[in-house]
Amino acid sequence: EGVIPQEYTLIKMEVISPFPPKMSVLEGKKVYLAAATLRPETMYGQTNCWVLPDGKYGAFEINDTEVFILTRRSALNLAYQKLSRVPEKPTCLVELTGQDLIGLPLKSPLAFNDIIYTLPMLSVLTDKGTGIVTSVPSDSPDDYMALHDLKAKPAFRAKYGIKDEWVLPFEIIPIIEHPDFGNKSAEKICIEKKIKSQNEREKLDDAKKIIYKGGFYSGTMLVGEFTGMKVQEAKSLIKDKLLELEQAVVYSE
Ligand code: A2H
């Protein structure tokens, strides 16, 4: 935990009913996987959602009608940020593992894909954000390599009971023009650095640093309402729009 609080945008990724048996107590409620992001302007390019298969999650009441699926730790923080049915107290309707969430179909704000699926990423941390991460393989090296691993390795899909149709139809969507790395900057840097899998932590951290600066300061939006605008300017406009439409909330830790 740093001294300076980190402010995330939580994207409300709606779970499409009918829910699986383990989640049947949630039927009739609006249920969301709440993904923590620092890059709300990239939401057009979402191809899936990431969870940690062995991670512990819960379905927590945000108000009388809405439920967020996330870690208990983040539910407690949210309860102190006026985002719980009972003030300052997280109330959990059902405990779930990441494995329980794999395969859930979602409808996510701004995404060009009408439905995206919940899939495993082994680098998801349960002590950061909500433990739910939305995947934008065009602009995030972690997301690119994790999706690449699932696409390239049938045995990896089988291990987690993943159907081909949750993964294979989903292509990288160009959303931002990067001054040095083009419109699929994450793929370009991963190829340049010869990154072989999502487990190459140091190389991936390097890759992230290299593409971030240029993308943020000189990147240009290629899609959506703010096409042609610099990423730096579009970011807060897109975030405000998501908040106003109640498709996202602000969360700090
Ligand atoms: B970002 P910071 Cl396109 N475990 O969102 C692992 N990663 C997590 C996480 C967790 N518990 N919670 C959030 N994240 C990811 C978009 C994105 C992100 C793009 C490019 C870069 C990028 C789509 N994924 O982050 O350690 C989320 O991925 C680069 C840093 O708090 C979140 O923003 O700085 C970012 O890491 C927050 O990381």
Cα(first) to Cα(last) distance is: 8 Å
Low-confidence stretches: none
Rounded mean pLDDT score: 97
Biggest sheet: strands, sense, closure?
A: 10 strands, mixed
Structural class: alpha+beta
- Assign the CATH topology: Isoleucyl-tRNA Synthetase, domain 2
CATH homologous superfamily heading: Valyl/Leucyl/Isoleucyl-tRNA synthetase, editing domain
Instruction: Look at the structure and give the CATH class.
Output: Alpha Beta
Order of helices and strands: EEEEEHEHEEEHHEHHEHE
CATH architecture: Alpha-Beta Complex
> Which bin fits the share of residues in helices?
25-40%
Number of DSSP helical runs: 7
Give me the Rg, rounded.
17 Å
Estimate the strand proportion.
15-25%
How many runs of DSSP E, i.e. beta strands?
Answer: 12
How would the global form be characterised?
Answer: globular
Sequence-ordered SSE layout with sheet pairings:
Elements: E1 7-15, E2 30-37, E3 48-51, E4 56-61, E5 66-70, H1 72-79, E6 92-97, H2 98-101, E7 105-107, E8 116-120, E9 133-135, H3 141-152, H4 154-159, E10 176-177, H5 185-192, H6 201-218, E11 220-221, H7 231-244, E12 248-252
The chain binds ligand A2H.
Description:
The protein has 253 residues and is an alpha+beta fold. It has one domain: Alpha-Beta Complex (Isoleucyl-tRNA Synthetase, domain 2), CATH 3.90.740. The protein has 7 helices and 12 strands. The protein has helices at residues 72-79, 98-101, 141-152, 154-159, 185-192, 201-218, 231-244, and strands at residues 7-15, 30-37, 48-51, 56-61, 66-70, 92-97, 105-107, 116-120, 133-135, 176-177, 220-221, 248-252. Helix 3 packs across helix 5 (185-192) and helix 5 crosses helix 6 (201-218). The longest helix is centred in the C-terminal third of the chain and has 18 residues, at 201-218. The chain starts with 6 loop residues before the first strand and ends with a strand. Ligand A2H is lined by residues 6, 36-39, 42, 123-125, 128-129, 131, 133-136, 139-140, 143, 208.
